[in-house]
Fold this protein.
Amino acid sequence: MVGFISQNTAMGLTKAILLTLLAFFGFVSRRLSGGGVLPSIISGIVITLLGYALIQIKLWIKYLPTIGH
């Protein structure tokens, strides 16, 4: 709105921050529940991949109806 960054850059930063937070919370929640470091890292990665899949599904839902028109 102010013109500091483009809309594409803002969307990319939003995705990166969201996925970073998901990885962090996935890791921390597993560690707090008594998991080891390696299982916690794997949990963070799995949660991040699920978050990425949800982002892609949301984008497909948003843009798919306009592709054919």
Remarks:
- The two ends are 29 Å apart (CA to CA).
- Residues 37-67 form the longest helix (31 residues).
